[in-house]
Amino acid sequence: MDIHSQISQSKIETIEHRPNRAKKTFSVRETFKIETGVKTDASGSPIKDEQGNLLYKDVVIEGFLEPGIMTPKINPNYVFPKEELVQFLQSLKARDTTYLVGHSGTGKTELVNQVAARLNYNVVQINFDGHLSRSDLIGDWKIAGGNMIFRYGLIPLAFTEPGTIVLLDEVDACAPETAFVLQRAVSADLRFLMHETNQIFELHPQNCIVGTANTNGMGDDSSLYLAGTNVQNFSFLNRWKTVIQIEYISSADEIKVLENMFPDAHAKQHIVQVVKVLSAVREAFKAGSMSMPLTTRDGINWMEKISRVPLPMKAARYSFLDKLPVNDAISIANLIQRHFKLVDKDDTKYLTTRK
To answer: Which residues of the chain have pLDDT under 50?
Structure first.
């Protein structure tokens, strides 16, 4: 067969969208437990009901009537960061490609999952590591039963499943050459031609694409993520419409989370001191005097051990101190000694002096 015959027999096929999922309108105030402002009259004064209660604005957002097959579970203890949540909901509504950037443990992935859990979105989470290849993302030809069949990868499957957040998790760990595959997917028209099958895939109108990263893709200023992250091509980074910086949880919100998780009096009495240590370590990290931060995950691990054995230093040692650089462990141990009244039988491994 000559080239002209081959060309005349080949064609490009656009994959049709699957039927939309049934939608539902959610109140932002009720669903996410954040204040959306009070109603005011023409003079700017708050409007109240007959009982004198303030009337709040009813800001709403669309989600789905029922959970999907890949909808995450609701974490009832999760506390949403208000400003970041509002920005993320706006980008979700606009179907912007959204890039969440922040240090490890700031809750980037959990923010996406908990929004999805409450609005009944599916989440197809693609974790980037050294073994993820182009064929994993797009697909490849396989032999099955003596026939050649195309096994579709994660991107086509996520693009076509209605009501789905395509979550490119830790996308700055993606090899730059693999990111060129994603460049087509996050382009302005949210469609790409799969050369292997001559098929055009368009992002389902009920879907959106979100990326999370520890760095902004232009290198690591903190030196925490030199191993495992890559400098990305500017043309790939430039395709993200919305960028949201995710900071560590506030002390007040972190106390709420831990109090919800550890309501028993013998554990609850330590929560304020635990949060003070976590916050102090993060501030030291930001100032450059500590090489690693402590995350809410570390705080939860610490509280779990304190609730079993009420020895804060020993609990901290087996939660995170033993995995830190020695200088950091010593500094944090002295912070713990400053904020807790330690008993004689508590651990002293990292203490330089004992009060």
So the answer is: 217-223, 225-231
Nearest to 174 by CA among 218, 128, 217: 128
Q: Is residue 283 a contact partner of residue 99, using CB atoms and an 8 Å limit?
A: no
Whether this model's pTM surpasses 0.70? yes
CA angle 288, 281, 291 (to 5 degrees): 40
Each domain of the chain, given as residue ranges in start order, spans 11-23+64-245, 251-339
Q: What is the CATH number of domain 11-23+64-245?
A: 3.40.50.300
Is residue 272 a contact partner of residue 280, using CB atoms and an 8 Å limit?
A: no
What is the per-residue pLDDT for 175?
72
- What's at 286, amino acid-wise? K
- Of residues 136, 114, 129, 120, the one with CA closest to residue 33: 114
Q: Do 35 and 29 contact (CB within 8 A), yes or no? A: yes
Longest dimension (CA), the chain: 88
